[in-house]
Write a structure and sequence with these properties.
Number of strands: 27
Strand content: 15-25%
Radius of gyration: 51 Å
Number of domains: 6
Low-confidence stretches: 1-25, 35-45, 687-709
CATH class of the largest domain: Mainly Beta
Structural class: alpha+beta
């Protein structure tokens, strides 16, 4: 920092471009140090941690000397006073020797702004320093004489350390104008203090809190003497009340905004009109009567002699069942809201809030009857024409449609393999695919094509809702339709006179029903085990011996057909085929197939090409963006999430298998190789290598999706779940 950019005090010089204390103290007579020099040797002026070589603006930063002073100001324009005494404070800033003068009693009005003040003539080329200040001396600042009468304790200590001998403090003179003015103000005050009426506390505590009561007024002057329903609001912030009327529809009464405007409600009203000034918040007395000049002397009357007292309704007067007087109208409080109950329960300890019955219960609405179905259009459409003058189409469950509509490879279609229940040898071998659409509860039936049967096959039943058999055709109520819970393996259903037996289902149907076991009791393994336990628990030892006899080689696994026959014999045919299949799927041993990468890529490319998916560059860019470390690999779940966001037309199981094929030793997916393998545009597999197989969940009507074959059933875990582990 250069010398020219900072002011330096006269006590400070420069050393290495830094302001230093360079003043040398002169010795006393005989070469002995002066008392002040001894004091400075004993005490350090610098703050703790600051050496004597610290800059002034650092050593004395935020250190100010404060002096109490006053000056006389002439008043030439008034005869009542010749001068005024104005008290002030003089601040001396040690960091740069600047001075500021303020007047503290007039909102810190600045008399002299902070700056360096020159000495009076003939030394105007010099500035005031700390040596020019002491107690009980006069300083001249711009031709105005200030008398310093005292200072604070910090200033006294600092001056003593500097070796300054402090003078005794001077007396503070009184301002004659201020004394006279105070006498006038004191004479204007009453002999007794005013009564303090503080409503601010109540307002701040209860602002926005309103008690609400439901009332009734039996108007005797009305033509039919019908009760008038009212709502009373009590405002806790200022103890005011307003009342609103509940006007019924088509009552013939005018709709007015308020029955009673907000104000304090007197208990005994109406009592007549008072003269202006009769009702006041304070009462005064004329203690001397009329004196000279027709001027009296009044004081506040604390006893309120002759005051007119009015009683107003408070919160303690309002309760259920009470009758209040609203300007001559008797209104009954019948009920209140929950906030009002909690308020009275907390403040007054009231627990009884039984409402008052003031009107008879409304008569029951007559049941609306509809004419029977005419046979034209659907039943729902005919019913809508009876509900209003303007016919509307029957409403549809749009939320269910959006949730259960097909999304990607999630078809939300339950498919079952069915056969006709008939004695005809021609129809016995016919196979049907029954598809149930969860989005709108519709059913379609497709017949599989079989060679050399003489039956063409194809669409057997158009998609639509199917009524359950045995219902009356022309009736007023809506017919019942087949639901998803009515379809399961082993169920017998009748579609328009054709009886079907459901003998199997595809893998997606089994997975969906097991995933939503709360909707399908036939696929709820917990319900099935509880049902089986209730049947087989009395014969637990016998059943264990039967299963052990079925496994002579002690492999702990039995074949499915044998397992099915054992369950049927144990349950005496109570279990449906679907419940037995659910048990088999839960405790089955499935063969693990090692999937071929080339085969998976072939099937995936075929699906992507079929659905015209070509956003491979964007897919790769998203993978690179999520790879913060640029290492070329990403976690398995993150890659799956990214693929789902692009809505890849691949089944979830196939996608999981593909991602697993491209994992490294650390279970991280090499996304570049994964995208290159899917890119059927640049890395297309030759046509002769393509293997056409039906994919899982593919929306076709040609057959079932292949499922993993069942090798056997592990019966020991089943027995342990039913009867507990055997000792």
């Amino acid at each position: 920092i250069g010398k020219e950019k900072f002011h330096k005090s006269q006590h400070w010089g420069y050393c290495n471009n830094v302001a230093m204390l360079v003043r040398e103290d002169k010795p006393g007579i005989g070469g002995e140090p002066l008392p002040g020099q001894k004091l400075k040797a004993e005490y350090s002026m610098f703050p703790k941690g600051m050496g004597s070589d610290a800059p002034a603006w650092v050593a004395f930063d935020k250190q100010v000397l404060s002096f109490d002073a006053y000056f006389e100001e002439e008043v030439p324009d008034k005869n009542q006073e010749l001068y005024r005494i104005r008290h002030c404070k003089i601040y001396f800033y040690l960091e740069d020797d600047t001075i500021q003068v303020i007047e503290p009693h007039v909102k810190n009005r600045t008399i002299v702004r902070r700056h360096r003040i020159p000495l009076p003539p003939p030394h105007e080329d010099q500035f005031y320093t700390i040596d020019h200040f002491n107690i009980n001396i006069e300083v001249i600042l711009y031709a105005r004489r200030y008398k310093i009468i005292d200072c604070d304790q910090f200033t006294k200590n600092f001056l003593r350390k500097m070796g300054v001998r402090l003078n005794p403090p001077a007396d503070r003179p009184d301002d004659p104008y201020t004394k006279e003015r105070q006498k006038i103000l004191d004479s204007m005050k009453p002999l007794r203090p005013y009564e303090r009426i503080d409503t601010l506390k109540q307002f701040l505590e209860h602002d926005g809190q309103v008690l609400r009561f439901f009332c009734v007024w039996d108007d005797p002057e009305s033509m039919f003497h019908d009760p008038r329903e009212l709502v009373l609001h009590y405002y806790l912030s200022d103890d005011t009340i307003d009342i609103k009327e509940i006007i019924p529809v088509n009552s013939g009464r005018d709709a007015v905004p308020l029955f009673l405007r907000r104000d304090k409600l007197p208990k005994y009203a109406p009592t007549g009109l008072y003269q202006p000034g009769t009702i006041t918040s304070r009462t005064v007395l004329n203690v001397f009567g009329k004196l000279v000049g027709n001027r009296g002397r009044y004081i506040l009357d604390n006893r309120k002699t002759g005051a007119v007292h009015q009683e107003f309704y408070r919160d303690s007067d309002l309760k259920i069942g009470a009758v209040i007087n609203v300007w001559g109208r008797k209104i009954i409080l019948c009920d209140c809201d929950e906030f009002t109950k909690e308020y009275y329960r907390t403040k007054y300890g009231i627990e009884e809030f039984t409402p008052v019955t003031y009107k008879a219960s409304p008569p029951p609405k007559p049941e609306k009857t509809f004419p029977p179905y005419t046979g034209f259009g659907s039943e729902e459409d005919s019913l809508c024409s009876c509900r209003g003058l303007l016919p509307k189409p029957p409403p549809k469950d749009f939320k269910k449609f959006m949730e259960k509509d097909r999304s990607g490879m999630e078809s939300n279609i339950l498919r079952f393999l069915a056969k006709l229940i008939t004695d005809s040898p021609i129809d016995k071998d016919r196979k049907f695919i029954i598809s149930y659409f969860l989005s709108d509860d519709t059913i379609s039936v497709f017949e599989q094509v079989q060679r050399n049967t003489g039956i063409l096959g194809g669409k057997f039943l158009e998609r639509g809702r199917v009524k359950k058999p045995g219902q009356e055709l022309f009736k007023s109520e809506l017919s019942e339709y087949f639901k998803a819970q009515d379809l399961f393996v082993g169920a017998r259903v009748c579609f328009h006179g054709h009886n079907f037996l459901l003998v199997d289902a595809d893998e997606y149907t089994f997975n969906y029903m097991e995933k939503h076991a709360n909707e399908f009791s036939m696929a709820d393994i917990g319900v099935i085990l509880k049902k089986l336990k209730d049947i087989a628990e009395p014969r637990s030892r016998e059943i264990r011996q039967v299963f052990a006899a079925a496994d002579p080689e002690h492999t702990k696994v039995i074949e499915y057909e044998l397992f099915r026959n054992l369950i049927v014999s144990i349950t005496d045919g109570v279990f449906s085929e679907h419940e037995i299949i659910t048990l088999e799927r839960c405790y089955s041993v499935r063969e693990e197939y090692e999937m071929d990468l080339h085969f998976l890529l072939t099937v995936a490319q075929e699906q992507l090409k079929k659905n015209s998916f070509e956003n491979f560059e964007q897919l790769s860019a998203v993978f690179v963006y999520n790879d913060r470390e640029k290492c070329g690999v990403l976690p398995h779940e993150m890659c799956r999430t990214i693929c789902k966001s692009f809505k890849l037309p691949l089944a979830d199981d196939d996608l999981q298998a593909l991602l697993t094929m491209f994992e490294d030793d650390h279970k991280q997916v090499e996304y570049n190789k994964f995208v290159d393998g899917l890119n059927w545009r640049e890395n297309q597999i030759p046509a002769f290598q393509t293997i056409k197989v039906p994919l899982k969940n593919e929306d076709d009507s040609s057959g079932q999706a292949p499922s993993l074959p069942v090798k056997g059933i592990k019966y020991l875990p089943l027995l342990d779940d039913l009867f507990g582990k055997e000792e």
